[in-house]
TrEMBL record:
<keyword id="KW-1133">Transmembrane helix</keyword>
<dbReference type="Pfam" id="PF02518">
    <property type="entry name" value="HATPase_c"/>
</dbReference>
<dbReference type="InterPro" id="IPR005467">
    <property type="entry name" value="His_kinase_dom"/>
</dbReference>
<dbReference type="InterPro" id="IPR004358">
    <property type="entry name" value="Sig_transdc_His_kin-like_C"/>
</dbReference>
<dbReference type="InterPro" id="IPR036097">
    <property type="entry name" value="HisK_dim/P_sf"/>
</dbReference>
<keyword id="KW-0902">Two-component regulatory system</keyword>
<keyword id="KW-0597">Phosphoprotein</keyword>
<dbReference type="InterPro" id="IPR003594">
    <property type="entry name" value="HATPase_dom"/>
</dbReference>
<dbReference type="Pfam" id="PF00672">
    <property type="entry name" value="HAMP"/>
</dbReference>
<keyword id="KW-0808">Transferase</keyword>
<dbReference type="Pfam" id="PF00512">
    <property type="entry name" value="HisKA"/>
</dbReference>
<feature type="transmembrane region" description="Helical">
    <location>
        <begin position="12"/>
        <end position="32"/>
    </location>
</feature>
<feature type="transmembrane region" description="Helical">
    <location>
        <begin position="52"/>
        <end position="73"/>
    </location>
</feature>
<dbReference type="GO" id="GO:0016301">
    <property type="term" value="F:kinase activity"/>
</dbReference>
<feature type="domain" description="Histidine kinase">
    <location>
        <begin position="135"/>
        <end position="350"/>
    </location>
</feature>
<dbReference type="InterPro" id="IPR003661">
    <property type="entry name" value="HisK_dim/P_dom"/>
</dbReference>
<keyword id="KW-0418">Kinase</keyword>
Length: 362
C-alpha cells in the first residue's frame, strides 16, 4: 500500500464509497420488494423479475461508476501531478523553470507559489555561492602565492640576517592579510547561515556604539579625524546578535576612516524611523560615491579606489549580510556636507522572533 499513488488511493476511496452506495440502494429496494411480496404474495414472479432487472442494472452501473471514479480522481489530481512533474524537471537541473500557478488562492496554488519561492531562494543561494566561491578562491590565492614566492626567493640564495628578517616580515604581512580574509569569510557564512538562532538577545546599541567609537577615536587621533557619537543618554535597545551588530558598525566606521581625509570628521547617529526600525548612520567627510558605485559597494570583493589602503572588499559585504540576517535594510546616501552617509535599519520584528526561539527551547 505504501508504493501506491495518491490517484490509486483516491480511486479506491471513491470506488469503496460507490460500492457502499450501490449496496445500500440494493438493500433498500430488496426490502421494499420484500414488503410488497408479504402484502401481495401473488406478485412473487413479478417481484423476482424486478429484482433480476435491478441486478442487471447495478451490474452495468457499477463498472460505469468505477470508471467515473477513476476519471474524477484523475481530474482532481491533475494539478498535483503537473506540479510533481514540473518539480522533478527543476530538480533535474532546469532551475530557471517554475511551477505554473493557475489559481493562487486555492490549496494547490498556494503550495505552488510556496515551492516557487523556495526555488527562487535556492537559485539565489546557488548563484551567490558560485560567485562567492570564485571570488573567495581568487582572494585567498593571492596572499598564498605571495607567501610562496617570498619563501622560494628567500631559499634560492644565502641571505644576511637582515634580509631574512625582511622576508619573514613580508610573509607575516601576507599571513595577516590571509587571516583577516578568512575571518571575514567565516563571519559572512555565519551571518548568512542562521546565526540569529545562536545568540539572539537584547542589545543596547548606544553602549555598543560607544565602544566602537572609542576605538575609532584612538585611530582617528593619528590623522586628526574627529569621531563623534550622537545618540543621547538613554539606552537604545534592539534585539539582535551582539557580535554581529558590533562587527557591522565597526566595519562602517573602518570604511569611513579609510576614506576620510586628515582633519576630517565622522559622525555616528542612532534614531528610530517612522515604521519602527532602529537606524544607525555613519557619516564621513570623504570624497563620496557616484550613484553607480552606491549600487555595487555592498557586494563582496568590491573595492573603491582612492583610500590608499589595501582591502579585500569584504567589510561592506559583511554589513549587508549582517543586516539581512537581522531582517533589516541598508544603503548609502550622499552626506549634506559632502562625503557619504552609510546607514542600516534593524527591524523591531526580531523581538517576536526571539520570543519564538525561547518558547521553542523551553
Amino acid at each position: 500500500m505504501k508504493n501506491r499513488t495518491i490517484r490509486f488511493r483516491f480511486f479506491m476511496w471513491l470506488a469503496l464509497h460507490t460500492l457502499i452506495i450501490f449496496i445500500l440502494i440494493a438493500l433498500a429496494l430488496f426490502f421494499f420488494d420484500l414488503i410488497e411480496f408479504l402484502q401481495h404474495p401473488a406478485l412473487l414472479e413479478e417481484e423476482l423479475e424486478e429484482l433480476m432487472v435491478l441486478g442487471i442494472v447495478m451490474a452495468v452501473l457499477f463498472p460505469t461508476g468505477l470508471a467515473g471514479a477513476w476519471l474524477v480522481a484523475k481530474l482532481l489530481l491533475r494539478p498535483w501531478n503537473a506540479m510533481v512533474v514540473q518539480a522533478e524537471r527543476i530538480s533535474a537541473g532546469c532551475l530557471a523553470s517554475r511551477i505554473e500557478v493557475e489559481n493562487p488562492h486555492d490549496e494547490v496554488g498556494r503550495l505552488a507559489a510556496t515551492l516557487n519561492q523556495t526555488f527562487d531562494n535556492y537559485q539565489k543561494l546557488l548563484d551567490r555561492l558560485h560567485r562567492f566561491s570564485y571570488d573567495a578562491s581568487h582572494q585567498l590565492r593571492n596572499p598564498l602565492a605571495a607567501i610562496r614566492t617570498h619563501s622560494e626567493v628567500c631559499l634560492k640564495y644565502p641571505r644576511t640576517e637582515e634580509e631574512y628578517r625582511g622576508v619573514i616580515g613580508s610573509i607575516l604581512e601576507d599571513t595577516d592579510r590571509l587571516s583577516r580574509t578568512v575571518d571575514q569569510l567565516l563571519l559572512l557564512a555565519r551571518a548568512a547561515g542562521g546565526a540569529l538562532r545562536e545568540g539572539l538577545t537584547e542589545v543596547d546599541l548606544r553602549k555598543l556604539a560607544e565602544d566602537v567609537v572609542r576605538e575609532g577615536q584612538a585611530i582617528g587621533e593619528t590623522r586628526n579625524i574627529a569621531v563623534e557619537l550622537k545618540a543621547g543618554s538613554t539606552p537604545f535597545l534592539q534585539v539582535g546578535v551582539p557580535d554581529l551588530l558590533r562587527e557591522a558598525l565597526a566595519n562602517l566606521l573602518d570604511n569611513a576612516l579609510k576614506f576620510s581625509p586628515d582633519g576630517g570628521r565622522i559622525e555616528i547617529g542612532l534614531s528610530k524611523t517612522t515604521d519602527g526600525f532602529s537606524r544607525i548612520t555613519v557619516t564621513d567627510s570623504g570624497p563620496g560615491l557616484s550613484p553607480e558605485r552606491r549600487l555595487s559597494v555592498f557586494r563582496p570583493f568590491e573595492r573603491t579606489s582612492g583610500s590608499g589602503k589595501e582591502s579585500v572588499g569584504l567589510g561592506l559585504a559583511l554589513v549587508a549580510d549582517i543586516c539581512d540576517a537581522h531582517a533589516g535594510r541598508f544603503g548609502v546616501d550622499e552626506a549634506p556636507g559632502g562625503g557619504c552617509c552609510f546607514w542600516i535599519e534593524l527591524s523591531a520584528e526580531l523581538q517576536g522572533m526571539m520570543s519564538t526561539c525561547r518558547t521553542a527551547l523551553n
